[in-house]
Specification:
Elements: E1 2-17, E2 21-28, E3 32-38, H1 45-49, E4 55-62, E5 66-76, H2 82-98, H3 106-118, H4 123-137, E6 158-162, E7 166-169, E8 174-175, H5 176-183, H6 190-208
Parallel strand pairs: 3-5
Antiparallel strand pairs: 1-2, 1-4, 2-3, 4-5, 6-7, 6-8
Helix pairs in contact: 2-4, 3-4, 4-6, 5-6
Length: 223
C-alpha cells in the first residue's frame, strides 16, 4: 500500500467520476504525474479547490496507478482567461501526452510552476522556456551550439532540424544567430521566440505522433 502525505503538486486536469467524485491528474514534485480519485467532492468546496492549475499539497493512498486522494490543501489558484487559459491547457496537455506516470522530474515541476506564474506577463516567453525544459527532461534536448557534424553554429548560416539528429546547414531554415538566441533563452526577443516556436513544435511533433494537440488549436499565432 502506497501512502503519500504533504506532497507538493499542481492540478493538470480533472474529469467527473461516478456520481459525486473526480479523477484528478496532477504533476507532483517527487512522484511525477499521478492520477487519483477524489471521492465525493463534486459540488463541494474541496471540489472547487481542485481546479486545473491549482497548486497545493497532496496526500493519497493506493495499491495501483490510480490512487485515492486523502488530503489536498490549496496554496495558490491560477485564474486565466482567453489565450492565457489556452496556454495553460497546452502545458497540461503536453505533460499528459508525453510524461509517463510516477516519473519524477523536479526540474520540470519547477518549470511548470514558473510558467503558470508568468503567463500573465508574456505567454509566448513562458511557453518557449517550458518547451525547452520539457524536451531536455525527456532526453530530446537540442544542441544550439553545434550542428550534427560537430561544427559550431554560424550566425549567418541557415539550418534545418533533423529529428533525433540535430541541425544541418540548409538553403532555407533558421539562421544561426537565432538558434544561439534560443539556446541562451533570449525569449524577450520576438524573432527568437518565433524561431523557437517553429523548432520546438517540430521537435515535439516527432514525439507526440500523428494525433494533434487539441489545445494548440486555441492558441493565438505568436503563442
Amino acid at each position: 500500500m502506497t501512502r503519500v502525505a504533504d506532497e507538493p503538486g499542481i492540478v493538470l486536469h480533472t474529469r467527473p467520476y461516478r456520481e459525486s467524485s473526480l479523477i484528478v491528474s496532477a504533476l507532483t514534485l517527487d512522484h511525477g504525474r499521478i492520477s487519483v480519485v477524489a471521492k465525493g467532492v463534486r459540488g463541494r468546496r474541496r471540489g472547487r479547490d481542485l481546479q486545473p492549475f491549482a497548486e497545493g499539497r497532496f496526500g493519497w493512498t493506493g495499491r495501483s496507478s490510480l490512487g485515492t486522494l486523502t488530503t489536498f490543501e490549496v496554496s495558490e489558484q491560477h485564474w486565466f482567461q482567453g489565450n492565457r487559459l489556452a496556454s495553460a491547457f497546452y502545458l497540461a496537455e503536453l505533460l499528459t501526452r508525453l510524461l509517463g506516470e510516477r516519473e519524477s522530474h523536479p526540474r520540470l515541476f519547477a518549470a511548470l510552476h514558473w510558467a503558470l506564474s508568468t503567463l500573465d506577463e508574456e505567454p509566448a516567453r513562458s511557453l518557449r522556456s517550458f518547451e525547452k525544459v520539457l524536451l531536455e527532461e525527456l532526453g530530446y534536448g537540442l544542441d544550439f551550439t553545434a550542428d550534427l557534424d560537430g561544427r559550431p553554429i554560424e550566425d549567418s548560416v541557415s539550418y534545418e532540424l533533423l529529428p533525433d539528429q540535430g541541425f544541418a546547414p540548409a538553403k532555407e531554415g533558421v539562421r544561426g544567430d537565432l538558434l544561439k538566441g534560443i539556446g541562451q533563452e533570449r525569449f524577450d526577443d520576438a524573432a527568437v521566440r518565433r524561431a523557437a516556436r517553429t523548432l520546438f513544435a517540430e521537435a515535439l511533433a516527432h514525439q507526440l505522433g500523428p494525433r494533434p494537440l487539441e489545445s494548440r488549436k486555441l492558441l493565438v499565432r505568436d503563442s
